[in-house]
Amino acid sequence: xxxxxxxxxxxxxxxxxxxxxxxxxxxxxxxxxxxxxxxxxxxxxxxxxxxxxxxxxxxxxxxxxxxxxxxxxxxxxxxxxxxx
Length: 84
What we know:
By secondary structure, the chain is mainly beta. The chain has one domain: Lipocalin. The chain has strands spanning 2-5, 8-14, 19-24, 27-33, 37-46, 49-59, 70-76, 79-83. The strands form 2 sheets. Strands 1-2-3-4 form a 4-stranded antiparallel sheet, with no helix packed on it. A 4-stranded antiparallel sheet has the order 5-6-7-8, with no helix packed on it. A hairpin with a 2-residue loop joins β1 (2-5) and β2 (8-14). The protein is globular and about 40 Å long. The relative contact order is 0.20.
């Protein structure tokens, strides 16, 4: 999953066995391992100012979650900018 915000590409890559990586403009800024849910926290500089991001990845194991088995919540400086 990836999205563009303020001309910056933020990408979440999921791998087998629960490995996850977050890239910001192609540079790895976080990596975690989890089978159910994870919070990735990192800080970057945008327009000369520090910006804090938090990305929550929730993997749904219920059979009814076939259509959307993974949800994402992205916060920038504590404010939700994406929730899918």
